[in-house]
## 1
Amino acid sequence: MRKMKLFLSTVLLMGMALFLAACSEDEFLQMLTGGTSGTYYPLGGEMATNISEATGIQTDAVSSNASADNVIALSEGDAELAFVQTDVMSNAVDGINSFEGNPVDNVLAIGALYPETIQIVTTGNSGITSVEDLAGKSVSVGAPGSGTYVNAEQILEIHGMTMDDIRPQNLDFGESTGGIQDGNIDAAFITAGTPTGAVEGLSATVDVSIVPIDQEKIDEMVEQYPYYAADTIPAGTYGLDEEVNTVAVLAMLAVVDSVSEDTAYEITKAIYENADSMAHDKAQFIQLETALDGIGIDVHPGAQKYYEEQGVSVE
């Protein structure tokens, strides 16, 4: 009899342990964003609040070195969600560029968010009016591990140049604009939604100029790298007198495959049904109709379930 009671007690304790483990699943989510002076961080903060309120799952947005580092952190289990550029995520899954020989196989897509414009920032008196003018100049190409570095490399490549043709500096957005203001660097590649806070801050102290990309080169980039799209920075942004033609990639939200289907479903629903409650300028681009644009990796089954319920086809 005692053995039977002991057995039943053990079974009961194991059942309670399993129940508590199930209840604790996905009770806390960490969302990696980017530098505090970019777009990811403030937008991610608002998005994390929406997810927390809509799902009851505490979600915290934290600053980071952005795309490439974010993917590595996800793959190593250091976070559950992250902002990532679509091109960087595709590279990670394919095991190319920054992920050469180290493909990532445990990260999935929630959805696309907004266009991230590649901005080559300089000053009006720098004498830099084309990509070719960057030759020999001190140029920030993004923080180590950032997608901005790959963007800079590919834009230089399309113009017949390499990193050896410039004096590359690995700076984040705030350091880049600070360096331009102080005269320590000549220009900076900044991949972020416009207007970008760090560049707006710079425009308050100096005459900002954005280096344009010729249409012929834009067409070459889109053909060679389909995750790029033509983009235009409107006149008036940063005090610009005229609009500037350039290219953009898309920001997306990625998730580890260990996040449950129910949680991924609720995250996706919270993002796309509450975007209009966010104050950030880029929130207007977070739409169900474009949620799968530029997504070159598998979508999480929970997100897929939500899209299919909304009539959005996931190929």
## 2
Amino acid sequence: MSRGVGEFEVIQGAIPDPFAILVALVTQLGDIWFVSLLLVVLFVRSDRVGRDRIAIVGGFVIGAIGLVFAAKYLFALPRPDQPLIALSALPPSLQPVYELTGYASGYGFPSGHAVVSTVTYLALAETLPVSTRRRRYAGAAAVITVVCFARVALGLHYLVDVVAGAALGAAFLFVAFRLVARYRSAERRRTVALGLGVTLAGMSVLVSGAHYEPLVLLVAASGVFGLSYVFDERRATPTR
């Protein structure tokens, strides 16, 4: 049974072919590689307090990715077969880029890009002390909407996939913030957030039957969790 509601005819029909590559590139705002790079850059450029905040967001993002893997393997629902444009319709110089950014394999429900972008940008909007809170949330909402729209426009997800993904991400983030808010110290909050990420990564390994992607996530999550203690030891060691 299809999950579609006729969204592809409306959305894809309104996008001219030359804009297909732009739509594909926009989705990278919610891709794991881009989000990971963004958090690393913010972590490196932040002070001690800021690094604790970014580490907490990182723990949430890891947990969100684990949640995505678990949900995808649990529901095991296919992606739609409705590409925005045929690869052969693009200039040869753009075909490799579009193939990397405009195509995807694996299960389609829920949208991982919707979950990850929702958790990442809403968490940063709540955490980063820049501009005003209203503007931060407006910017986050704009990015999430664009990413979700692009995933449907590319024919990689049904509308229900991105709506469910955004809802799942928002619900997870609400619970995650409530959980870390129970602790006063920044170190303890960071530990709880990263521990949550490791826990959900481990859950995704079990649900998927030890598929390689959840396994990689678990290894990465464990590594980040371990590095957090290295930073703590360096803080506690007086410099001479």
